[in-house]
Design brief:
By secondary structure, the protein is of the alpha+beta class. It folds into two domains: 137 residues, Fructose-1,6-Bisphosphatase, Chain A, domain 1 (2-Layer Sandwich); 111 residues, D-Maltodextrin-Binding Protein, domain 2 (3-Layer(aba) Sandwich). It is built from eight helices and 13 strands. The chain has an eight-stranded mixed sheet with strand order 2-1-3-4-5-6-7-8, sandwiched between helices. A five-stranded mixed sheet has the order 10-9-11-13-12, sandwiched between helices. The longest helix has 27 residues. The radius of gyration is 18 Å and the shape is globular. The N and C termini lie far apart (40 Å). Bound molecules: L-MYO-inositol-1-phosphate. L-MYO-inositol-1-phosphate binds next to strand 3 and helix 3.
Amino acid sequence: MQGSANLNVMVKAARAAGRSLAKDFREVENLQVSSKGAGDFVSRADVAAEEIVRDILMEARPNYGWVGEESGATEGKDPTRRWIVDPLDGTTNFLHGLPHWAISIALEHKGEIVAATIFDPAKDEMFVAEKGQGAWLNASRLRVSDRRKMIESIFATGLPFAGHADLPDVLQDLARLLPTCAGVRRYGAAALDLAYVAAGRYEGYWERSINEWDIAAGVLLVREAGGFVEGVEAGSDPISSGSVLSANASIFETFSGLIRG
Ligand code: LIP
C-alpha cells in the first residue's frame, strides 16, 4: 500500500518503538524468575516506547493533539487532529513473557479515525489502514472472514479480572454465545483482536470496557476490511462509549443480538 505522509510517519514511529520493546522483551523473559519481578521494568519500557512514538510523530506534526496511555492528553494548535496511541497494548502479556503485544497508533480528524497502524514486532506483522484506502497486513490486502455460519465462527473478547466490574455481563455473554459458535479466545491485546477480525482470523470480537487507545486503530482496520464495528450498545460509537463489538457483515446481526440480549 502506498500510504500518505501521515501513514508513513506512523509506520516509522511504530517500528522504532517496536525495536525498543523487542529488546526489552528479551530482558523481561529473564526477569520472570527474578525476585524483583518485571513490573517496574515493563512500566519503564512502556513509557520509553511512548516517548519514542511521541517524539517522531510530534516532530513531523507538531500542531496535532495527542492522547497516549502513559502520558495522557495534550491539546494541539490544530484542534481537528489528534494522535491516539497505545505504545504497548497487551502489557500483561509482555510482563509475563507472552509474545502477543503491539504498538497501536491512530490518527483522528474531526472525530473520525482516518489512519491506523498496529505493529506486532514478535510476529513482524504491520497492520495499516487509511480511510477509503483499504486495510493491509504487510503487503497483503485484508478482508474480513466470509464465514456465514455462527457454528463455524470463532470470537475473541476481554475477560474482566480483579477490579473490573462487568463480570456478570460477560458471563452472560459467554453463556449465550458459546453454545452457538466454534469457540471463544482471550488473547489479551484489543488492538490485535481487532486486527485479527480485519484479517479474517476470527469472525468477531467484543469487549465491554476498553480504552480508546486500545481500539482506535483497530476500528478503522475492521471497517476498511469490510467489517462492522459499533459500541456494545446498538448504534453507539465504540471510541466514545468505551466498548466495542465487531464482526464480519454476514454474522454481525446474529452476534450483536446475542451480546446485546
Ligand atoms: C489491554 C487490552 C485488553 C484488555 C486488557 C487491557 P493494555 O490493554 O488490550 O484487550 O482486555 O484488560 O486493557 O492495558 O495491555 O494496554
